[in-house]
Amino acid sequence: KERRDAQSVAIRKSTVGADIAAIRKKYVKEKGNFTEAIDALKSQIEATSSPTERAQLFLELATINDVELKDYPEAVANYEKFMEEASDQTRKGDVQLRIAEIRAEHLREPEVALELYQEFGRKYFNHPKRIDALLAMAQLQEKKLNDVQAAINIYRNVADSYPRSGYDEQALIRIAELSRTHFADYTGAVDA
Fold it and tell me: Less Cβ around it within 10 Å: N or C end of the chain?
């Protein structure tokens, strides 16, 4: 029974993947028409009840809005719908990071982005991009929110938590630079 269920899921994934590829080929590659591709994807969403399939389709819609059309509010809306439907925790973590990045860089909502990075840290603590998320949060604190001390604290956390990773050296250098620039704390910078 488990094997049949797994095969069924695999067949559905490949079917939805094939549908997405066909839509991209027909409307985007051949016609260059994203509007028709979006309409076709929305029709597919309405026609399916499987959360996994719906998640894939919402992710494709979000990607088109994000990468191709640069319609960031619509991209975020579809990424959030993906988050509601999806079950793959790694992909959900990746999407949450992308939403945070869009909110910080394109929608000028750094406070919302900070909340998303903090939530990522709580929900996806074993995610492969955890260190990248911490560094992005530190840069957000430093450059968009002008909270240099919070940024230094995050960099210190990275340096202490991930020794000999390469990230620790980056974090220590950034601590030293910020200490010198913002606090004239040359002793602290040397200690970093």
Answer: N
| 104 within 8 A of 144, measured Cβ to Cβ | yes
Question: How far apart are the C-alpha atoms of 102 and 16, rounded to whole Å?
Answer: 26
Closest CA to 180 of 158, 153, 148, 144: 148
120-178 tens-digit pLDDT: 999 999 999 999 999 999 999 999 999 999 999 999 999 999 999 999 999 999 999 99
Query: What token pair was written down for 56?
Result: 């894939």
Query: Measuring CA to CA, how many Å separate 35 from each of 64, 78, 88?
Result: 10, 15, 28
Can you state the angle between helices 34-47 and 51-63, rounded to 10 degrees?
170
How far is CA 69 from each of CA 27, 62, 63, 64, 182, rounded to the nearest angstrom? 14, 10, 9, 6, 39
| Residue whose structure tokens are 């094997």 | 3
